[in-house]
Amino acid sequence: MYEIGVVYRNLPRAEAAVADQLGAFGCATVHEAMGRTGLLAPYMRPVFPGARAWGTAVTVLLQPGDNWMLHVAAEQIRPGDVVVAAVTAPCTDGFFGELLATSFKARGARALVIDGGCRDVTALGALPFPVWSRAISARGTVKATLGSVNVPVVCAGALVHPGDVIVADADGVVCVPRLAAGRTLEAAARREANEADKRAQLAAGVLGLDMYKMREPLAAAGLRYIDG
Amino acid sequence: MYEIGVVYRNLPRAEAAVADQLGAFGCATVHEAMGRTGLLAPYMRPVFPGARAWGTAVTVLLQPGDNWMLHVAAEQIRPGDVVVAAVTAPCTDGFFGELLATSFKARGARALVIDGGCRDVTALGALPFPVWSRAISARGTVKATLGSVNVPVVCAGALVHPGDVIVADADGVVCVPRLAAGRTLEAAARREANEADKRAQLAAGVLGLDMYKMREPLAAAGLRYIDG
Amino acid sequence: MYEIGVVYRNLPRAEAAVADQLGAFGCATVHEAMGRTGLLAPYMRPVFPGARAWGTAVTVLLQPGDNWMLHVAAEQIRPGDVVVAAVTAPCTDGFFGELLATSFKARGARALVIDGGCRDVTALGALPFPVWSRAISARGTVKATLGSVNVPVVCAGALVHPGDVIVADADGVVCVPRLAAGRTLEAAARREANEADKRAQLAAGVLGLDMYKMREPLAAAGLRYIDG
Amino acid sequence: MYEIGVVYRNLPRAEAAVADQLGAFGCATVHEAMGRTGLLAPYMRPVFPGARAWGTAVTVLLQPGDNWMLHVAAEQIRPGDVVVAAVTAPCTDGFFGELLATSFKARGARALVIDGGCRDVTALGALPFPVWSRAISARGTVKATLGSVNVPVVCAGALVHPGDVIVADADGVVCVPRLAAGRTLEAAARREANEADKRAQLAAGVLGLDMYKMREPLAAAGLRYIDG
Amino acid sequence: MYEIGVVYRNLPRAEAAVADQLGAFGCATVHEAMGRTGLLAPYMRPVFPGARAWGTAVTVLLQPGDNWMLHVAAEQIRPGDVVVAAVTAPCTDGFFGELLATSFKARGARALVIDGGCRDVTALGALPFPVWSRAISARGTVKATLGSVNVPVVCAGALVHPGDVIVADADGVVCVPRLAAGRTLEAAARREANEADKRAQLAAGVLGLDMYKMREPLAAAGLRYIDG
Amino acid sequence: MYEIGVVYRNLPRAEAAVADQLGAFGCATVHEAMGRTGLLAPYMRPVFPGARAWGTAVTVLLQPGDNWMLHVAAEQIRPGDVVVAAVTAPCTDGFFGELLATSFKARGARALVIDGGCRDVTALGALPFPVWSRAISARGTVKATLGSVNVPVVCAGALVHPGDVIVADADGVVCVPRLAAGRTLEAAARREANEADKRAQLAAGVLGLDMYKMREPLAAAGLRYIDG
């Protein structure tokens, strides 16, 4: 049950340095480092190519067809934040466009992740202000009904708390809980440590079958080879 | 009930100058100027990046898997037209490709909006001939069953009459009824008049909360602030 | 009923020269040359713009959320192959990313066609290693359950046998059965032979109505013209 | 472009006797009699089994998440009407439930066709008051924004004018324009006239191939028989 | 980020009496009483007609294609519980069938709500054991990967904590947080108190326009009446 | 690549006795007995409640919006057959209704499985003639373009050969290859042999955790219990 009509202020954020290091790893690596959890649904796509962003979450709960709370959220943005907007029912309307992007950017926001629609996408690419959304739609919204800011929200199937770390790129959007950011960073670093070596071996033609020593478990599982 | 097997010729079009001015405003502004009506469903997407077009509608009613009437429509195109094609049942087949685009372009068409599929999209980008469609599909079509040209059609959920103004860009496609084009243009112009000023204020860090004087109505609606 | 836990080796492939000539025609022309069959569902999209590839199929049957068999398939790749991966139930997980692409490319694969998800799409574009997939998702997979390699698979609604020719571009993906490759090539060549002439006529403003002699059959079908 | 904020009163309806006779034929036959046009999208389903209704349309244009205009429409209902509600953007909210059904029924309405959601479906079945909707959802709506009553609407992809005949059953919903109702009735009657004879022949084992004399056209089209 | 591999035991539940009283109001009324929040997505449907259930939530987090944790959850069921199962990625497999239903029922569970598939639906109707699911599918699952029991889960877009009250019927499924159950019950009771009177008025032909005193606000909003 | 314009006659069928015994086990059990393969996509649903059927497949390949080949297929039906119809592109049109059902039933067909739409569903329930389809739609079809009968088809994602065994019920539709029917029957029988005992234990309150000896592997996988 969402709390409606409330704005939480001055909530703690994950450490900026940790958020930045997680961002450098990218969405896929961070998602793996979290034990394959925290990913938003893959229908969330960047609205222009090359978009990549990370930061700490300011959450917004919107009503369908109503973007009033995005204006309320703007005041709560601090440099380094990523705004994460959920909607109380599925809606593809264009809640966000060039003017709000100009405002959000001026307040220090790095990106918007919205489980709804977005418009003015050409202008967003020119600013640039990266957005991940479920739809692109010119359909406008009203400013009539309260939602909330900085309550926990379910965005594209994932639970996001204010202050969590958001990492978004061409592969999708992942949310790292604030209190798990440090250990996720360590896990991501461990994961990447030997990637370069693996990549070199594979590029040289070594098979994953051998590099990962899969032949024995495959045989144990019953894999049979038949010559055609 | 669609009228099948009919081609209306020499129907009146919205004024070319009005269509061009509406086009310059773009889909989102025009849609707002119409009181947030007239928008085609957001599944209609440009088949190559950067596509932007506007003009007066030549409408086509197609049967699923059959592009015969697009050839019939070609003859009715006048310079400045945008062809708007509906299908009598949902179908993602590739009704339109490079050859038809070459023909449409030679007749003066500026774009195609089709509630079906499209193919040869690389060639369309090279011509260029912009297309907004619900799908990209190589699946070809036959030429066997009659539809109609220049009857009113429901395209992607919107009613389009021949001669209406179509404005299409990265945000979507909007249809302005011919007789409403003039007053929609005025409304769009009014809307844009003070956008530059608003953008400058927001870029300077002024909040929409203050610029739009939202604090009072938000409080009246019951919004509460809680420090975290 | 799929055969599970089997790898067929050294199966015959369509002739490389025939595959290459088919590839040059592109997906739409080849699909037409096959009598409008063989096309994969249009939800299969390239993960980066400009992707185009063709070759002979190595097929893989995956279990949902499990990419083990892609490693097994790597060993069966020969230069000029395109890997075609089906999944036993719909799944958008990111089965394939940069490391596997490095390995596949080193083995001579030209592309992957996967009825599932794909990740590291920025890196795939940089390699480049073209992929057609039903989704982009950072969500990772495990290596726990057997599937098969080089069994016939249903991929995005189309039946693909190992050794068939795959042609993929911006319009989609088509599969040409190995034994039909030769006659499909002839049909494609015949189809393209007079395209240049047609294109020139249409560019000069000649109507398809006249070029294709459609006026008589349209009248016979009952088409009526009414002046508006 | 929808006209917003308007209620048309006392519009002409199709003749009640014609509507009732069309209703007796059922949705599939009427749709055929109209040359296979006029059908609403097949996602429109009855909310309880056995629902069947027909009558003259009172149209309603709703805003997403807002059922205010259904109350306005209630006053315009006359005995024998079917209310047809469109929404300006896709929305599955439960716009309609037991109380409105009680009111509509008391005013003489026979059914609701709504391109949105519906709730209290158990109570609707008990009244009974038949509803065809795109969704069932408990999610409630507000009464805040104007739409219109008795303007032409696009409902589930079909254009419906006030006064048109609506026929709905387990196969779907079809709309017959008021002025076409008479000739559609004749066509439906002709179509049904020899159905009983055909049914008897087929039940006796006569093949459609012979009854419809299809063997020659099939052979002409090139059909070949091969013994397995 | 979900906690994986954990089973919480002996968590507090909402009061049984409160849950039962909420259940008697039904999903739509409870959802309204919560300020229109807490509803699961409308794709969650009962697998047999007439299903209706309520109780306190035991939550389960499943991996796609794996029902191991449903067996783990069975031990945590107490009489009066409703099991609520989320999956870490969308999956329509048949996680649950007759045998598990027999076990759940024997342990005192009243229903299952699962954001995945279900099978043996004829047998479930015969037991009866009500299930709300996103799909019906015969496709079976394995028992190989850990999830969790009694962690907070996102099920069909709604956040569910163990011990919350679940109310499910033909209109959908709603979740009432444990600590909000009491005040939600009061709100639901207030809401229903004057329903009977309203129903009687509407049945007598009184218009909602008058009963709810809507004529003035409608006029204030600009509604115009035009005689046709 | 489908073979178009061909009818194979007198193909071998799976043994009738084996098909009947498989049918008695039902879709879920047979699917398990096949190693969890052979299932059609879960969007295939019975058009009336209680439908259950099995038999040997006569396959039909249809063109979208065209049911000509269903008439051709009728002649190839033998008592005990189930007609399985695929379409060369997604289409929800109503290919099949009461007249064809009367004909199919007279020829001895037991059911239709169609990856398209169906109509006259009330009449189908009255005959009864069970149908599993992807949609219900009144939209009619033409008889204009050749497909094939008794070629291998991909229906709802599954490969079906003529003569295979089809088992369909409320849980879905499964296809057993003709040559695998015998060993699938044995596997199904083994699977069911101890179901009664398991059901009795679970009904008595024994946990699956104990009955299936899962506690040890769960602990080995790392499952932890925490008291709340």
Detailed description of the structure:
- The structure is a homohexamer of 228-residue chains.
- Chain A has 228 residues and is of the alpha/beta class.
- Helices cover 32% and strands 26% of the residues of chain A.
- Chain A contains nine helices and twelve strands.
- In chain A, the strands form two sheets. In chain A, strands 2, 3, 4, 5, 6, 7, 10 and 11 form an eight-stranded mixed sheet that branches. Chain A has a two-stranded antiparallel ribbon with strand order 8-9.
- In chain A, a hairpin with a 2-residue loop joins strand 8 and strand 9.
- The radius of gyration of chain A is 20 Å and the shape is elongated.
- The model of chain A has no long low-confidence stretch (mean pLDDT 96).
- At the A-C interface, helix 2, helix 7 and strand 12 of A face strand 1, helix 3 and helix 4 of C.
- Strand 12 of chain A pairs parallel with strand 1 of chain C, so a sheet runs across the interface.
